[in-house]
Fold:
Amino acid sequence: MKIFNTLRRRIEEFKPIKKGFVGLYTCGPTVYNFSHIGNLRTYIFEDLLRRTLEWGGFKVKQVMNITDVDDKIIKKAVEESKIIAEITVPYTKAFLEDLKDLNIEKAAVYPRATRHVKDMLRLVASLMAKGFAYQGKDKSVYFEIAKFPDYGKLADLDKVALQAGSRIEADEYNKEEARDFVLWKAMKPGEPSWPSRFGLGRPGWHIECSAMSMHYLGSHFDIHTGGVDNIFPHHENEIAQSEAATGKTFVNYWMHSEHLMVDGQKMSKSLNNFYTLRDIKNRGFDPLAFRYATLTNHYRSKMNFTWEALEASQNALNNLRFEIAKLRMSSAKAPRHPSETETKLVKSFKEAVENDLNVPEALGIAWQAVKEKNLNSKRKLRLLLDFDKIFGLGLANIKKPVIPRKIKAIVKKRELLRAHQQFIQSDVLRNKIEALGYKLEDTEEGPIITKK
Ligand SMILES: [Zn+2]
Structure:
């Protein structure tokens, strides 16, 4: 399997640390609001990555953090006169519901930052002991980037000004400058805090991911992912903290999904084009239509979301479901061995997904299979359900439609008429079937009836 590694800015052959096993860390949400569809696109990309690895025979341990303490959460809690858990608990629940609606496989664990403060403090203490961190006059602890010569290797920081000695303590960063960043923030009045040898305070955002990923996957693991806006400074800082503390490589492969645009523009609250999955559902769309839309874009290309494109995806998904229902109705027997056509389709599908997740191409191959006339229905069904292990469109749940006995009897009578070339009468019966709400299609394997 080949993947694009942001760290080396090239496509590389994926080689796991441990044979047959993949440790995968995917940056999760900061739970102060509903996830917007740009975030959801990233989570779907990560799900496709995981499903492709699993389809290829790897066992995957996926860890996704829930950031349940940070500046934005605290700000919202203060504004609404609540404690932070009153913000984070309901939004965590909403986030997990979104994942379920989008058919995203569950991670092995969703660690909450607030439950790993001890791990974070241990990491900060080790950075202090090794001389990579210092405590400022404000009592906050900072990472000294000048001490880590590899700083900037992920983001390719030529253009970013390195401001050695100047510090930043906020979770919101200026994307143009690299500065000493906060590991441990000294307590401010009214903010939640934890005791530590550096005094009362709370962790910075970056240290959360380093501590939680290493806790569950070890200090050196296979793949770390996120959206492109995580590359700098979040992931750059994660590398600095982790590698300075352990003295070894943190992660072998870094993968990032591109932005989602709405009507060709950056999504923002001020442009009124900021959507969540709730907006999609409220307009009567199936959440999986959004998933389908993401499948038609390669993860390293910008995706342009429009309501028209979503409608087209909904139609395509409905058609695919209808095709599956039709295949379920077939009474054909499956030959034991795949035909040459089937073998070819499987080969090109595998090549597509294992070529840096070319899912749009794989989807095209699935449609080719749907339209392929030289494929036995039973085998075609099996093939499409196998492809759907990666697409995750829930096609396995499409049941064989229940056809009433009355309809079946008309179909039988019509077959008899057709066998005797009585086509005018047989057409009358076809119209009758349609009028009763069913659709009839004559195929080489016999008539197929589905609900309209
Ligand atoms: Zn993270």
Remarks:
- The first strand starts at residue 2 and ends at 5.
- The chain has three domains: 2-257, 277-397, 405-451.
- Residues 27, 209, 234 surround zinc ion (CB under 6 Å).
